Amino acid sequence: MSAPQTLFEVHRAGPLALLQDAGRFGVRRLGVTQGGPADEHAWAWANQLVGNAWGTTGLEITMGGLELVCRSEAVIVVCGADLDACLDGDALPLWQGLRVEAGQRLSFQQPVNGLRAYLAVAGGFQAEPVLGSTATVTREGLGGLHGDGHPLQEGDRLARAASPTGRQPGQRAPADVIIDYREEPRLALIPGAQVAAFEGSSLYQAFNATWQVDDRADRMGVRLRGPELKCRSGGMISEGIGPGAVQVPPDGQPIALLNDRQTIGGYPRLGALTPLACARLAQCLPGQRVRLQPTSLEQASRAYRAFRSRFGT
Question: How far apart, in whole angstroms, are the C-alpha atoms of residue 181 and residue 102?
Answer without folding.
Answer: 32
